[in-house]
Amino acid sequence: MRDVMFAAAVALLAEVAFAQATPVGLWKTIDDETKQEKSYVRIAETGGVLSGKIEKLLDPAKQDTRCDKCTDARKDQPVLGMAIIEGVKKSADDPYWDGGTILDPNNGKTYKVRLTPKDGGKTLEVRGFIGPFFRNQTWVRVE
């Protein structure tokens, strides 16, 4: 009986850990260059596709910031509430999600993106890349 209970507990812990090892949730973004906390981004899943919106800007002076450098439909739109991650899907055999894009509202550039949960889902490695060039940020799970 003890072995059955132990196996059930291990299975439950594995299920909880796996459930958190996903990009879905609320993340605190941290600038890769300045190491400053910048915003909260909520990543949601609809039909197996991930998208992410800026839910909160952490600098009170930037609450009314607009994406003046964007070149698409987001041009001059408020950054707060803006969709910055689009079209991301789980990679079949890999521990990451990719195939979509991420927008950097600071420079208006859109990058291909790869999202990789780390530390059992406590952090998220966000890699934006254009061709062979990339940059990484590590976001921290809020919820």
Key traits:
single chain; 143 residues; mainly beta; Lipocalin; 8-stranded antiparallel β-barrel
Quick structural overview:
By secondary structure, the protein is mainly β.
Which architecture per CATH?
Beta Barrel
Mean pLDDT: 88
Low-confidence stretches: 4-19
Annotated CATH topology: Lipocalin
**Helical percentage:** 10-25%
Class by alpha and beta content: mainly beta
Can you write the helix and strand succession as a string? HEEEEEEEE
User: Tell me, what is the CATH class?
Assistant: Mainly Beta
Oligomer: single chain
Q: How many separate structural domains?
A: 1
Biggest sheet: strand arrangement: 1-2-3-4-5-6-7-8
Number of helices: 1
Q: How far is it from the N-terminal to the C-terminal residue, by CA?
A: 35 Å
Radius of gyration over all CA atoms, rounded:
17 Å
Strand content: over 45%
Tell me the major beta sheet. Answer: 8 strands, antiparallel, barrel
Count of beta strands: 8
Shape descriptor: globular
Task: Explain what this protein looks like in three dimensions.
By secondary structure, the protein is mainly beta. It has a single domain, classed as Lipocalin (Beta Barrel). The protein is 13% helix and 48% strand. The protein contains one helix and eight strands; from the N terminus they run αββββββββ. The protein has one helix at 2-20, and strands at 25-30, 37-46, 49-57, 83-90, 97-104, 109-118, 123-130, 133-141. The chain has an eight-stranded antiparallel beta barrel. A hairpin with a 6-residue loop joins strand 1 and strand 2. Mean pLDDT is 88; it is low at 4-19.
